[in-house]
Structures are given as C-alpha cells and as structure tokens.
C-alpha cells in the first residue's frame, strides 16, 4: 500500500492516478484545506482508499499508515502566501505536518521509500555567471532597483550584468520566502529521518507545475493558474516585472511520473523535476492567451513582489541519469490542454 498525503490536491491526485495505472494499491490522506478546496473534488478515483483527516493529527496518521510500505508526501500549504500573517500556518502545515508524519513512520519502524514534494524555491535566486568572476550568488534584490525597473540582479563583486544558467541540485540553497524556508526545513527533517532509520528518502524539487485540476481564484495558486483564471474571466493576464523572468514550466503528469519513478526506483537524494526548457513568464502567459483568446494578450505591469526571484530554472540531467526520469509532455500542447481544462474551485 502506498500512502499519498495531499492526494486529493492538484499534484497529489495526479500522483494517485499514475500509481493506480501502474497497479499499485493507493490510500489518500487529505484534510481538504480551505485554501485549496472549496468543495470535494469529483475527480478522485474510487479505487483509492480515502482517509479524511489532517497529517498533523496522530490518530489520523495511525489509521492512514496501516499497512503502508511507501509514502508520497504531497501534503503542504503552497505558494508565496499573502503576507507574514501566514507564517505560522506555513510552518504548521508544512514542517509540523512533516515532523508528525516522520514520527509516526519511525514508531512503525518504517524502512521503505518516502518521496517528498519539495520545490525549486529552496534555491532562492538561480545560478548566475559573471564574465569576470564566474559563478556568483547575487543577494536579495534592492527594492529601489525594482521600483526603477532594474530587475536583473548585478554581480555582487563588480556590479556587471549576469548570465543566468540552469541550476543543478548541488547549488547552494538560499530560501527567500516563508514558503521556501518551510520546504527546505522539510528536506532537512526528511534527511535526518533517513539517517536515523535507514529509510530511502527522495526529495523532488518541483519547478513551475501547471495542468488540469489547478485551483483557481486563490492567492496561493501558481502563476499559471492565476493567468488562466484571468483569461476565463475575459481579462488579460497581468505579468509582473518586465515579463522576462525565466522559469521552467513542467506539466503535472510529468511530475506524477517522477513520483512513480522515485517510489519504484528507491534512489535517495534530491532531484530537479523540470522540463529542461526554460521560458519567460511573459512567454508562458502569451502561449496561454493564444490558446484561450489571442485578443487577450498579457499586460506587462512592472509591479514586483517581495520574495520573488528573477531567474530560476533547472538542470534535468541528474534526474535523467540517476533517477531515470525525463519530462515527456509538450509545452504548446500542454498549454492548449490547460486552456480548456476546468480549474478546481
């Protein structure tokens, strides 16, 4: 039996579907958090057993872990959030929830595979190269620069323009938001658990995931969902900064495949889960608008958000060579599908 925490959510439900397709017995644990669910979704496969409850509750975990030999831990409070009023909720859902899960697994002498849904946000800013100083780590961007429309981080040594590069898994970790800090804490907690128990822990660092079942109309949703919600309302997507910030947009079915691969392969460590093809946020918004209504091209606002980074996109090489995972979904086809797919209330 494989337990998928958060298995009723956007990514978790696709993981459940992929596991069922592979013939696995699956149990879902989900508390249907109000920030992500306004109602029970109708897409849950009845072949998966459902435990309705909170991963932070020991009694719920006792029921959910009965007979479990592997765990895909997707349960989390996601997104940048609204403001620091969210900080305790993020720590509670993400870090306390993970700690309670690990405590319950340790009490059962669990030595199976635990796959953790991590995130590219643990890197902070991406990888940059200065023509004079080589690989450098720019500090947090200056609000005065951002207000003036200077969005590119300069070299911290000489101030020259930097060239962004794909981030490998051994890059320094530098979380720059509350959410990012909780995701890195989850990785550290799970690594400690692996050292103490001998269990296999695989951390999958998701990049910008998109696809069917994304939640709509919530400040905690990803940028693809926010743009899709605007287009569904007949509005032009509003792109922050100058739209040139680069990300890696990976389809949710590829993310689900990565989870299945990690659960079956039992390979420890951290892996980027990404398409391997970076695109600008403006490019993604335009592709989505073309698929919905070409007249609703994005508006570049020049606004910025604290905690956002300029460029972060992944190297998929280690996931391919060590884990045996490579993304398969085509970006343009994925955008067309996403344009037509209903979003979750």
Fold blueprint:
Layout (H helix, E strand, L loop, with lengths): L1 E4 L4 H12 L4 E5 L18 E4 L5 H7 L5 E4 L13 H21 L5 E7 L7 E4 L3 E3 L6 H5 L15 E3 L12 H20 L2 E7 L1 E3 L12 H10 L5 E2 L6 E2 L1 E3 H14 L3 E5 L5 E2 H12 L6 E2 L16 H7 L7 H10 L5
Parallel strand pairs: 1-2, 1-4, 2-3, 4-5, 5-9, 9-14, 10-13, 11-16
Antiparallel strand pairs: 6-7, 6-8, 12-15
Helix pairs in contact: 1-7, 3-5, 6-8, 8-10
| Low-confidence runs | none
H-E order: EHEEHEHEEEHEHEEHEEEHEEHEHH
- Termini separation comes to 30 Å
Mean pLDDT: 92
Using brief descriptors, characterize the structure shown.
345 residues, alpha/beta, globular, three-stranded antiparallel β-sheet
Structure described in brief:
Helices cover 34% and strands 17% of the residues.
Question: Describe it for me?
Answer:
It is a single chain. The chain is of the alpha/beta class and 345 residues long. Helix content is 34%, strand content 17%. The chain is built from ten helices and 16 strands. The strands form five sheets. It has a seven-stranded parallel sheet, with helices on both faces. Helix 3 (87-107) links the parallel strand 4 and strand 5 (113-119). The mean pLDDT is 92.
């Amino acid at each position: 039996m494989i337990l998928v925490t958060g298995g009723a959510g956007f990514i978790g439900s696709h993981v459940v579907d992929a596991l069922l397709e592979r013939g696995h017995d699956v149990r879902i644990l989900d508390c249907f958090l109000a920030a992500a669910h306004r109602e029970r979704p109708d897409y849950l496969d009845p072949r998966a057993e459902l435990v309705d409850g909170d991963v932070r509750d020991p009694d719920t975990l006792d029921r959910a872990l009965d007979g479990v030999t592997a765990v895909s831990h997707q349960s989390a409070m996601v997104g940048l959030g609204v403001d620091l009023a969210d900080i305790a909720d993020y720590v509670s859902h993400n870090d306390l929830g993970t700690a309670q899960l690990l405590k319950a697994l340790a009490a059962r002498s669990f030595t199976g595979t635990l796959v953790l849904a991590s995130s590219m946000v643990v890197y902070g800013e991406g990888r940059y190269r200065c023509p004079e100083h080589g690989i450098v780590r720019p500090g947090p961007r200056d609000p005065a620069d951002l207000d003036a429309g200077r969005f590119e981080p300069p070299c911290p040594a000489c101030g020259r323009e930097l060239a962004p590069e794909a981030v490998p898994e051994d890059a320094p970790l530098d979380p720059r938001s509350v959410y990012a800090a909780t995701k890195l804490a989850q990785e550290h907690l799970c690594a400690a658990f692996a050292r103490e128990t001998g269990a296999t822990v695989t951390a999958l660092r998701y990049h910008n995931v998109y696809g069917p079942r994304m939640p709509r109309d919530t400040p905690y949703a990803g940028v693809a969902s926010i743009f899709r919600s605007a287009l569904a309302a007949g509005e032009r997507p509003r792109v922050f900064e100058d739209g040139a910030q680069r990300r890696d947009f990976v389809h949710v079915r590829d993310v689900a495949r990565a989870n299945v691969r990690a659960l079956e392969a039992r390979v420890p460590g951290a892996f980027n889960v990404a398409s391997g093809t970076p695109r600008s946020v403006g490019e993604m918004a335009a592709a989505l608008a073309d698929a919905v209504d070409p007249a609703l091209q994005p508006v570049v606002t020049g606004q910025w958000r604290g905690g956002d980074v300029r460029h972060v996109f992944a190297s998929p090489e280690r996931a391919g060579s060590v884990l045996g995972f490579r993304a398969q979904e085509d970006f343009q086809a994925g955008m067309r599908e996403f344009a037509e797919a209903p979003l979750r209330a």
